[in-house]
Amino acid sequence: MKHSFLTACLAATIISLSACGGSSSNSTSEQEFACIHNEESVNWDLLLEGNAEKLSDYQLFLDSCNPAATNSERGLPYDLSSALFTDYASKYRFIFIPDDQHVLYNEKEAFDFPTGSVITKTFTMPKDTSKRGIKNETLLETRLLIKRTEGWIARAYVWNKNGTEAFLTRAGENIKINQIKHKGQNLSFTYKVPAQNECLTCHQLKIKNDGTEKLEFKPIGPKARFLNSDYDYEFGTQNQLTKWKELGFLKGLPNNIEEVQKAHPFNDDMRVSDYSGTPEELNATAKSWLDINCAHCHRPGGQASNTGFRVDYNTPLEGNAAYHGICQSPVSGASAGSTKIIVPGDAETSLLYNRLHTTNPGLSMPPLGRQVIHNEGTQLIKAWIDQLEGSCS
Predict the structure, then answer these.
(1) Which of 40, 204, 243, 318 ranks highest by number of CB atoms within 10 Å?
(2) CA angle 387–392–393, rounded 5-degree value
(3) Residue 271: which residues within 8 A CB-CB, separation 6 or more?
């Protein structure tokens, strides 16, 4: 599927439920709204100073009913080679950078975005995960990360049932999902839009600088290793980092893209046989998945840095077994038959696998962002643990 780029726009006459992503079961607003088609630029002043009650007030999308493809000028779509799981929702991501500004490259951490930048992520739910695409999906929410003078802030906007407008929520919202199909399974669950203060759980890091520590709000996804992959733009496929540099969005990228870190790709269409090749390939895939799904908390400075389980990407497994939780006792969540975080060669008795492979409140991990089990992700981690060598005795 080709993706719209920069000033691309859907035909202004298309105002239908299919173009708007169908209907949502949430009850944010019962009002009727028409899709807005405009040619105005992003409302940078409002992004910097205010909190719009309606997503369309920011003018981020030329067609207000389609936050999946119709970005305004100075916007650019992107994707991650290994992505954070959220209940099999589809995600449509964009960055927006103010005129004459640019993102600064960082080799290992999230890029440094200029003041005024916006990162958007729209979550939609397909009726059948084998038939993705905005026309086959229901709009759920659009999350914004906005870089203001004082730092990043997070705002979530929930779409009305007609898919014509999204409204700011501060307390979060529960959306009932009925009977989506995924690989022969019928899934029903309650999708949870996070409350504003819950965003700190994953996005806040303790940063050490000049002998002092302070908490900073950080983006998770836009790191070189997850962006060092091809993207199907409207006018052809190109490496994302190269495209960002070409457009003047990114400064500091090495001239040789081969020098840039590259996370091992993972997606839900992969089979166990696709990532259970050599131990090195399996380890690389597992490390990438754990990094994007767990390491924002399970890393130095993260909310769970004291748990005995840390999986930040740039700490190698070899020589750091205990750091990764191998044969380590957990600080919480242990249960009979699962008293070590990782037991080499035995995923079934490893707490990591069991907490990923449950939906029981208080036990499931991550604690936010999922209500169903990520079967493909847990199969990956099971295969990885089962091939680890060693003993805890």
Answers:
(1) 243
(2) 130
(3) none
DSSP string, 90-114: EEEEEEE--TT--EEP-SSSB-BPP
The C-alpha angle 309, 192, 339, rounded to 5 degrees, equals: 25
CA pair distance 388, 393, nearest whole angstrom: 15
Question: pTM of whole model > 0.85?
Answer: yes
For residue 112, what are the β-bridge partners? 104
pLDDT tens track for 248-291: 999 999 999 999 999 999 999 877 666 657 888 999 999 999 99
Alpha-carbon distances of 279 from 289, 338, 347, rounded to whole Å: 15, 24, 16
Residue whose entry in the numeric block shows the structure tokens 């038959």: 337
pLDDT confidence of 32, banded at 50, 70, 90? low
Nearest to 97 by CA among 143, 47, 57, 56: 47
Angle (deg, nearest 10), helices 279-294 and 375-386 = 130
Rounded CA-CA distance 300/357 in Å is 25
Q: How many CA atoms lie within 13 A of 101 on its CB side?
A: 17
* Beta bridge partners of residue 174, listed in sequence order: 192
CB 96, CB 42: distance < 8 Å: yes
Of 293, 291, 333, the residue nearest 312 (C-alpha): 291
Report residue 11's pLDDT band, with 50, 70 and 90 as the boundaries. Answer: very low
**Does the N-terminal peptide bond of residue 366 adopt cis geometry, omega within 30 degrees of 0?**
yes
Q: How many helices (H) and strands (E) does the chain have?
A: 8, 14
Strands (E), 234-273: 236-239, 250-251
Q: Give the distance between the most distant pair of CA atoms in the chain.
A: 69
**Cα–Cα distance between 189 and 345 in angstroms, integer?**
33
Beta strands in 325-366, from DSSP E residues, in sequence order: none
